[in-house]
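Supplementary notes for students who missed Thursday's class. We covered one full example, reproduced here. Read the sequence, then the structure, then the short commentary at the end.
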Amino acid sequence: MEVTKTQKADLENKKVLFFQIGLIFALLVVFLAFEYKSYDKITLDIASRAIDDTPEEIVPITEQTVKPPPPPPPKQVTKITIVEDDVEVEDDIEIDVEADATTEMEAYVPQDMGDEEIVEAEIFTVVESMPEFPGGMGKLMTYLATNIKYPPLAKESGIQGRVFINFVVEPDGKISQVKVLRGIGGGCDEEAVRVVQGMPKWKPGLQRGKPVRVSYNLPVKFTLQ
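Structure (token representation):
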């Protein structure tokens, strides 16, 4: 028996169309797959709330104590002593209102104010003309060698050296304020002071042509022979 098909029931001629439709559907699925995005899940917990149990710090209130003002000083009361008119007052000064040019006046006697404090003059260390021993430095060395007596203690102990003496030559040439700057002991210091204090008057130092006080240093040598 021969099977007959109508043209409408024949699908052979529609195979290309179905292939195209399937291809378009496949491409659409692939495109949608590339375009699909996934997001991380975020959970919002709106109802929960953290409670801070930290105790609140209470700042102590500093009390300022106001000191009461000091009491006012007591009022000073001046005591007035009434003096009678007949009280005698010493050292009255008599004034002669009728005195004229011919009236004799008593001589004025100044009051004794006592000894006034004497201000010492300045002591110079360097002046225009330095003080000098009478006769020069050679006479000074001769004077020291002649008048110095070697102390026995220094001889026994073998002490020798230089004693540096400082003194002031006054404007009149006298020697004052003798002191030891550096000594060697054994009685040599005292002997050097004794000899310097006994020196004759020097020729005073001059500053601007006037004699002045000048400080002078002198080494005194002690040598055992």
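Commentary. Helices lie at 15-35, 137-147, 152-157, 188-197. The mean pLDDT is 77. If anything here is unclear, bring it to office hours.
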